[in-house]
Amino acid sequence: MIQYALYFAFGAFGMGQLFCLYRVVFAPGVGDRILALDTLAINMIALIALFGILHNTTMYFEIMMLFAMVGFVSTVAYAKFLLRGDVIE
Amino acid sequence: MELLGEIIVAAMLVISGIFGFVGSYGLVKLPDQMTRLHAPTKAATLGVGGVLLASLAWFFFFGDHPSWHELMITLFLFLTAPITGLMIAKTNMHLTWNPEELPDPGEDRNWATFGDSADSSLMDADPEIGQDEREHRE
């Protein structure tokens, strides 16, 4: 039962990644592009967690943590750059 | 116990998969820049939090030893998602909105992304210094 639920979740988040990629490429504004990149990073964390369940290992925890931190910092830095023309004042 | 664990983990995986899918689909489907901000910052974050909690439950029921690491990432994501949303909303406002059409903020300062407060950093803003002195200092 968990196997099928895992495959369903893999499919759902994979489709989500495709939607985000579409929005990165065909974005009407630059804010949407930042948002789509942030969502790509967040969905990737879910995919890595699912992969960890599938292979019954806790090894991927550090990768998830790094994805969460780098995704957040890069999103804020990009938004800040567009807002003020400078990342660190 | 085994069956209970399977039901809990499978239900959480399916529910959070639906949430994540809806969150990413809303990014494509919704009509307006500010409404598109809602889908990933709420639904997708909830979906990822659900997957991480399902991973926590999986290692609690079937793993060698339970780990609380996933809870830390869930907390981190739930703390950072509103900040991300705020920053992107401010960027949208700064790039596409017209400052003359906005309502008056009511104080002597303008909205945070427009006007004088946008030109000078908040770090060296001093409430004691008047408007003339601030212009003089610049």
Fill in the keyword field for this structure.
heterodimer; A: 89 residues; mainly alpha; 0% strand; flat; B: mainly alpha
Task: Tell me what you see in this structure.
The complex is a heterodimer of chains A (89) and B (138). Chain A is mainly α. Chain A has one domain. In chain A, 82% of the residues lie in helices and 0% in strands. Chain A contains three helices and no strands. In chain A, α1 (2-25) packs antiparallel against α2 (30-54) and α2 runs antiparallel to α3. The mean pLDDT of chain A is 90. In chain B, 69% of the residues lie in helices and 0% in strands. Chain B starts with a helix and ends with a helix. In chain B, α3 (38-61) runs antiparallel to α4. Chain B has two domains: 2-96; 101-138, no CATH class. Chain B is mainly α and 138 residues long. Chain B has helices at 2-29, 33-36, 38-61, 69-96, 116-119, 131-137. Chain B has six helices and no strands. The model of chain B has no long low-confidence stretch (mean pLDDT 81). Chains A and B meet through α1, α2 and α3 of A and α1, α3 and α4 of B.
